Amino acid sequence: MSLIVQKFGGSSVRDAERVMNVARRVVDTYKAGNSVVVVVSAQGDTTDDLIEKAKEINPKASKREMDMLLSTGEQISIALLAMAIQTLGVNAVSLTGWQVGMKTDSKYGMARIKSIDGERIRNELDDNKIVIVAGFQGINKYDDITTLGRGGSDTTAVAIAAGLHADLCEIYTDVDGVYTTDPRIVPEARKLTEVSFDEMLELASLGANVLHNRSVEMAKKYNVNMSVRSSLNLNEGTYVKEESKVEKTLVRGVARDNDVARIAVCNLKDEPGIAFKIFSLLAKNGINVDIILQSIGREGFKDISFTVSESNAEKAEEILTAEKSYLGFEDIKISTNFSKVSIVGSGMVNNPGVASKMFEALYDANINIHMIATSEIKVSVLVNKDNADAAVKAIHDKFNLA
Amino acid sequence: MSLIVQKFGGSSVRDAERVMNVARRVVDTYKAGNSVVVVVSAQGDTTDDLIEKAKEINPKASKREMDMLLSTGEQISIALLAMAIQTLGVNAVSLTGWQVGMKTDSKYGMARIKSIDGERIRNELDDNKIVIVAGFQGINKYDDITTLGRGGSDTTAVAIAAGLHADLCEIYTDVDGVYTTDPRIVPEARKLTEVSFDEMLELASLGANVLHNRSVEMAKKYNVNMSVRSSLNLNEGTYVKEESKVEKTLVRGVARDNDVARIAVCNLKDEPGIAFKIFSLLAKNGINVDIILQSIGREGFKDISFTVSESNAEKAEEILTAEKSYLGFEDIKISTNFSKVSIVGSGMVNNPGVASKMFEALYDANINIHMIATSEIKVSVLVNKDNADAAVKAIHDKFNLA
Hints:
- Two copies of one chain form a homodimer.
- By secondary structure, chain A is of the alpha/beta class.
- Among the domains of chain A are: 172 residues, Acetylglutamate kinase-like (Carbamate kinase), CATH 3.40.1160.10; 75 residues, Alpha-Beta Plaits (2-Layer Sandwich), CATH 3.30.70.260.
- Chain A has twelve helices and 18 strands.
- In chain A, α1 packs across α3, α5 packs parallel to α7 and α11 crosses α12.
- The interface between A and B is large, with 37 and 38 residues.
């Protein structure tokens, strides 16, 4: 008998019919002989509606009160799901974040989980009940309700799985699993049977967007076996687990990210401290930087290029231009006409040929590379936005991922 | 400086505009130099909507899950009200039933308050905050959320006032206060400056319906000064407090209750135990009986008449008819063509003339009396429904209540 944690998002429970579907799904898992803990998000648009109600009254409402308000969304879902399961003749009990001892820090609106007291859940499971827990919420040391910010419900599910030493944490979403690349770009894209935690982290941050990185990082830390599958069918999903020691895949998948702007700071003095000045300025202003490239300019000078999200591009330019004399550059240019295309695979660590094979695929497709960045299990390039889809196809074919 | 508890019902907070009105009201009280605790109900139709959501999924949902669901209504209200008060530059904090230690028994859906731990509220008040507490909810020994049933929010307010030794508990509603009688029947009806707890109890159970009896009983037990006033204007309301020792009013008001059915059980044997058998049967089946009248039938027999609510009339008849041979009666008749009209006044205890003055008023108006019942501070009569309004007018005039 296994202990399985299942998480369902807002669209999976958005109305009575959907709630009943989830209930049947959960009961099937239970009747197959498993202990089941279910984590649910607020129904459909509930969270947005509550935010609207709040804005109407106070656009600058305190985060503490927003958390009090928003946590009602999940509380409604868990009660309705418990009721639905009861109609199927199985005993179920719903529990809020505070009732399961989901202890967090005090950053209202984006709280971090510190610990979870599994006693209440265990007692209810020992009573043969299906336990339903509200995602996205916890309680801080002041006995106040906190919400967990983006990815909160996925993270709740993993935290519970970790705390209870569950056998599996299944995240139900509206896609079948993780694919070698976006099927909308490459129809031949294949669903992966499994990916490692690190590969999932790289794929997620590169735009795959199936699981929140936060939950994958926690799963990696506590070695929680995860799977991503669809709530709309019974297909096996993609397992996310510790990477296999025996065989590592060279390239697991190809990701594309359109939300990229390149900023080129031209003709900086070629002396120490320049990079430090530029990037600490940006960091102080909350601008995340992705790829950084330094190249040689004319004698005694250098150029530094880097990428940020498109929404941060103007702000980054303003910040640096305001410090032009301090930083000492001649020119600064923004371009949003780029996409980032990346390959991810735990096996490329000891295989230098992987990167060059990617470059070959792009050369064969006559696609120019503007920037290159690599990490242990990832190679990213910047190409023109118009070329992005073709680049993904070319690479996908080159590595026979279909 | 006083500590005042203010309670606002669902219609008072049903939309953003109304919430802001309440916020201004509360802040005015606070700025006048008082400590303020506010108790609010769920917005407008929220509770009904939640019940509908539940019914759609499971018409026989467990009470425990209904309480989990319904308590979100009040939780939304308290957060929105706190946000509204914050826009007025005053610090406010919302607290759920469990956060204020509102401990109840475990009768989900109709829980009774056992105790309240005032520490959290006191700490927040000491911090000069306006404290907003969710009405209608508490927590039981299993750390489960419970709701308090009818009159729950009024009762929450009185319980907090009692627990904190508040100076006043103001219940805001949509009428100006308690009147000598229903102004829709007698336009000259006068608003009472004050009534005693007992008078309020009699008036409420007789259909005045301004305050729930439960809250008045608790106020009486813990001697909490209450007032009933309108949320729509600034008029002084009616105070509800310990009766004045100095002067008691003979008749405080006239109440009329149309929800009355009379059941006559005819020709029972005139021997001991009959009344006991009839009324314990009814009690076992949860039928509340109001007035009981026993009269002499033919030799060796007696008739027993009693009143119940109209909705219980058929059930009562069925129950007794099913035991016809055991009870030994010949005939049973229901009539719903009656109204109960009552006068209430703490002063009538030692004034036998009060009842006869009431009967005189009815006689002068040519209205027939079908049943009479009296208690220490109340005289009730049953008249034909058609005569009810005229009866109220006649009595109201007779006692110069306008």
